[in-house]
Amino acid sequence: MKKYGLPINLPQIAKYDMKIINQWSKYLFIFLLLSPMWSHGQNLESILERHFEAIGQENLVAMRSIVMEAREMEGFSSGKKYSITKKYPNKMRIEGKWQERVYVKAFDGTRAWTIAPWTGVHTAQLMTDRERNLFLVDVGIGSPLYDYGLGNVLNLIGSERADDANHYVIRSTTNSGFYVDYLIDKKSYMIHLVRIYEEDQIDKVAYEVIYKNYKNLGGVSIPFGFEKRIDRSVTSIVIDDIVFGQGASNSIFNKPE
């Protein structure tokens, strides 16, 4: 019986097979090169989703406003007391007393300003760019990683072990290039630490803030303690009281003219 078909040329087939293998090797190399970037993009979204779920971010946003009474302690000495008022999406006012004089820090959604009597100036002044960036680190109600309309860009930059736990490290960068790193616990998905860098030496840590004493309040989890570390100096911040949803007039955030 006569069989029809193409003539078989083994060396030529081997030559074509090697071309195909070489092409697929190039594609595989490119895929392996890009896959970490792709997985980081996927992971960031899922990490944020679990983080917001863990703290009850949507419930916090729904409350629209929050007022907190705070006090600072350094060592065994009792420091200053102040109130923090936040209004969704990004208004905040901090008010306290210094040597019987009122001091204020506020952001009205556009301008950040301060009244700082220890400077010898007793009228409202606009903050410097550095002061503004630092003030807005925790401007929103709930997680500082939530989108409060400030245009910050988030990136997952790696993992880090700190204080006997493993964490994701998420960097938040503003339009001006100022950035802050947040360590998210890999088990609880709560913020453990916020890392601030020096203005002139952006790779040198200026200070860190530890989030402590999380409490669950009917569907939302909030830290009632913070620990600010600057070199070997430690300042503790305690939240004594929190009131949700009582409202806040826009006028208290506006800079006096």
The count of DSSP E runs of length 2 or more, i.e. the number of strands, is 13
Secondary structure class reads alpha+beta
* Strand order, largest beta sheet: 6-5-4-3-2-1-13-12-11-10-9-8-7
Rounded mean pLDDT is 86
Please describe the biggest sheet, giving its number of strands, its sense, and whether it closes into a barrel: 13 strands, antiparallel
Estimate the global geometry from the Cα principal axes: globular
What Rg is obtained from the alpha carbons, in whole angstroms?
Answer: 26 Å
So how many helices?
A: 3
What is the succession of H and E elements?
Answer: HHEEEEEEHEEEEEEE
- The percent range for strand residues is 35-45%
Low-confidence region ranges: 1-16, 27-42
Helical proportion, percent range: 10-25%
Cα distance spanning the termini: 104 Å
How are the elements arranged and paired?
Layout: H1 10-55, H2 57-62, E1 65-74, E2 77-87, E3 91-98, E4 101-107, E5 112-115, E6 125-126, H3 129-135, E7 153-162, E8 165-173, E9 179-185, E10 191-197, E11 205-216, E12 221-230, E13 233-244
Antiparallel strand pairs: 1-2, 1-13, 2-3, 3-4, 4-5, 5-6, 7-8, 8-9, 9-10, 10-11, 11-12, 12-13
